[in-house]
């Protein structure tokens, strides 16, 4: 059996047991209902499944045990890290795309500009080996193009875009560069000393990719309509989101976040489905923006 088939079998087992505990026979029966699993011949023996469970624990940090009373397998501890989760999800998407070929509009994709992912392998090599990179960069605001030399630190995803975070050698400041705006990427042979820049810490209280501004993190309380509140509850705006209360009239959430430009734009995008409760200063900024919008009409 190929490595691809083995990974697909691991992925299928995890997905099934996240739904509910299942016996070995139930797992095999579910696989037999899945056209992709049938095509890849993912059904297996009990002995192979027991080996799979050990491998899943080692690779994904997902512990699976069998309840002797019911003879059903269940997930005991699920501490799959984010990179592993994203890799597994992308693997599932690739399988779905492969299956959809020849089935018309089974999968419908958004039209969008390239994400610049062709640069990722080279940039990761430069980051890991602390090598300077040079490239031409097209700015968002005025479409001007400038040559840059950067000491790369990390790659960060934000709102369906990937960004290079690094020190711009022109002014020695840490900046963010969208990969889809990078052209003529060149990996320099010259290296740089480690940069004391903690990406997790720098972006911990940020909504998206904007940081390094004057806004301090603060507690923000938002009130959503029940319809919008249920959506926000299922897909949080920020990791700090916590539910204060919910009723037939409203859902209230608390955040600890920097009220940066991109967060303000996110709040404004909800229109009359959201209301800022606290703090007063942020509420006044949103009101000011709403009045400026109304003045356009």
Automatic annotation (TrEMBL):
This is WYL domain-containing protein. PROSITE patterns: WYL. It comes from the Bacteria. Residues 119-185 form the WYL domain. Residues 217-293 form the WCX domain. InterPro entries: CBASS_pafABC_assoc_protein, WCX_dom, WYL_dom. The lineage of its organism: Bacteria, Pseudomonadati, Bacteroidota, Flavobacteriia, Flavobacteriales. Signal peptide: none annotated.
């Amino acid at each position: 059996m190929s490595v691809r088939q083995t990974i697909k079998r691991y992925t299928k087992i995890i997905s099934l047991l996240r739904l509910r505990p299942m016996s070995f026979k139930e797992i095999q029966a579910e696989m037999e209902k899945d056209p992709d699993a049938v095509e890849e011949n993912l059904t297996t023996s009990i002995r192979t499944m027991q080996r799979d469970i050990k491998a899943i624990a080692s690779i994904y940090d997902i512990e699976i045990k069998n309840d002797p009373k019911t003879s059903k397998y269940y997930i005991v501890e699920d501490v799959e890290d984010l990179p592993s989760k994203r890799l597994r999800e992308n693997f599932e998407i690739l399988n779905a795309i492969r299956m959809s070929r020849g089935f018309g509009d089974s999968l419908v994709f958004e039209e969008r500009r390239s994400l610049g992912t062709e640069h990722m392998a080279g940039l990761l090599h430069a980051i890991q080996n602390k090598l300077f990179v040079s490239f031409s960069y097209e700015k968002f605001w005025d479409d001007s193009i400038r040559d840059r030399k950067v000491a790369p630190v990390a790659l960060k995803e934000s709102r369906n875009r990937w960004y290079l975070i690094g020190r711009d050698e022109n002014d020695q400041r840490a900046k963010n560069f969208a990969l889809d705006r990078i052209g003529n990427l060149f990996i320099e042979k010259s290296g740089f000393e480690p940069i004391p820049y903690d990406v997790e810490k720098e972006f911990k209280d940020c909504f998206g990719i904007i940081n390094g501004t004057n806004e301090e993190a603060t507690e923000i309380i938002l009130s959503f309509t029940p319809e919008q509140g249920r959506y926000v509850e299922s897909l949080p705006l920020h990791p700090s989101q916590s539910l204060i209360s919910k009723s037939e009239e409203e859902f209230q959430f608390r955040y600890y976040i920097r009220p940066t430009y991109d967060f303000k734009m996110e709040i404004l995008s909800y229109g009359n489905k959201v209301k800022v409760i606290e703090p007063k200063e942020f509420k006044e900024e949103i009101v000011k923006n709403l009045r400026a919008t109304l003045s356009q009409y």
